Amino acid sequence: MPVSGPYNSQNSQNSQNSQNSQNSQNSQNSQNSQASENSQAGPDNTFSSAALGTARDGTVGYWDGSADRTPKQDGRSGWDALRAMATGPRRGLMDACLHGMFGVTLEARAKDKPATGTVALNGATLVTLEAPTSAFLADEQLPYLRTYADLRGDRLNEIIMQTGDIQSFFGLVGYMSPDATKWSLALNQAMLRLCTMIEMPLKHGFDVARPIAMSRKVQPMIQTPGHGAWPSGHATEAFACATLLSRLFLNAPVDPVEQVKAGNELYRHAERIAMNRTVAGVHFPTDSMAGAVLGVTVAEALINLLDGAPQTRTRVFHGSVYDGDFSLGRMVQALDTPTEIKTGTLSLTPGMVPGWLAKMWDEAKDEW
User: Fold this and answer.
1) Angstrom distance (rounded) from CA 346 to CA 311
2) Which intervals of the chain are annotated as region Disordered (predicted)?
3) Measuring CA to CA, which residue among 221, 195, 162 is closest to residue 290?
4) How confident is the model at residue 45, as a pLDDT?
5) Is residue 19 part of a domain?
């Protein structure tokens, strides 16, 4: 979903319709404008390089090769080193850190057991997703598409924009700017990239069919992505963002489940983003429920790590037998029904958060 608009320019992070590749949140916080951020005076080209070369020759004179300054890099903190990095390298560092915390494993469907995907945090199970079969979807989920299609005229503009931009919708709730909320945007972008890293192996491994594969009458209003439907990437990312930004916007520790129950504005936007994918004809409601469970649980775990909490919640979504619709109200009901979503706890390992990331988290919280 490339997040274009005033909130975006961080790297084309989420073009989910063309590939759910979340790396297109481009324009999302103008963090990537390296010509202004990371050059001496302007873009490099043959002319400017030649001009700088002759200027050096005309001013330096004779140099015997000896040093005449002390590098400020000597002894500086990891945070100071990160602040000096250009946007691309900084993203690479953040991704290496966050992606290294999480892992995905898949287990194929057996005779009496559904296909199962597991997301682990530091090697311990955090989220378990049990996928539905095509026959189950055709019988229990496809009829929802008929009802949702009635909303297409009302939701068209949102659906088109959300194929490449979801962050701007959260920007309706809290002021987000590359200058005023630089670190909040950087963390939210990192969350989106983390979601892609987690969701894509699950989508590939489950390879759950899209609605168009079930009926010629679905006729989606946007192009159907070629990768698997389950879990929904839009739902995963939207609910992860809503969880992270709820913590930042409210500037205090929050319980995501209570915020979902209260229907705060961020979660209402996440709900609408997810549901719009069913309106468009490219997802079933169960896809969104799986994504919402995944996004909330991963974001909640990361927030708890950053806040130094001793534990976080684990969840199992029994998607192989979930025949319901998707909404915040239905999610609340499922969270209170262990046969649909089973909740547990996981102790967190101290010391997983490097100092520079802890400092970034403090800076992001101070922006609110």
Assistant:
1) 5
2) 1-52
3) 195
4) 74
5) no
Please check whether residue 54 lies inside any domain of the structure: no
- The DSSP bridge partners found for residue 344 are 314
What amino acid occupies position 12?
S
Q: Which two tokens stand for residue 98?
A: 């966050």
Structure tokens at 359: 């400092």
Nearest to 26 by CA among 175, 237, 185: 185
Handedness of CA 9, 245, 128, 275 (dihedral sign): negative
Residue 112: pLDDT band (50, 70, 90) is: confident
Is 82 in contact with 356 (CB distance < 8 Å)?
Answer: yes
Q: What residues have CB less than 8 Å from 6, skipping those under 6 apart?
A: 168, 171, 177
- CATH code assigned at 225: 1.20.144
* CA–CA gap between residue 148 and residue 278 (Å, rounded): 7
Q: Which helix (DSSP H) or strand (DSSP E) does residue 324 occupy?
A: none
- Range of the structural domain that residue 341 is part of: 87-366
The number of CA neighbours under 13 Å toward the Cβ of 117 is: 26
Closest CA to 360 of 91, 43, 130, 164: 91
pLDDT value of residue 42: 57
- The CA distances from residue 108 to 27, 111, 155, 203, 284, in Å, are 39, 10, 37, 13, 21
310: three-class secondary structure by DSSP: coil
pLDDT at residue 222, as a whole number: 97
Both tokens of 305, joined, read 């790590």
Structural domains counted in the chain: 1
Instruction: Answer yes or no: is 18 within a domain.
Output: no
Q: What is the DSSP code string of 226-282?
A: SS--SS-HHHHHHHHHHHHHHHHHTTS---HHHHHHHT-HHHHHHHHHHHHHHHHTS
Residue 140 lies in a domain: yes
Q: Nearest Cα to 18, choosing from 153, 271, 196?
A: 196
- Tens of pLDDT, residues 247-268: 999 999 999 999 999 999 999 9
Structure tokens given for 81: 């080193």
Tokens of 239: 């609910």
Q: What is the DSSP string of 143-164?
A: HHHHHHGGGHHHHHHHHHHHTT
| Local confidence band at 272 (pLDDT 50, 70, 90 cut-offs) | very high
3-state class of 125 per DSSP? strand
- Omega before 338 within 30 of 0, i.e. cis: no
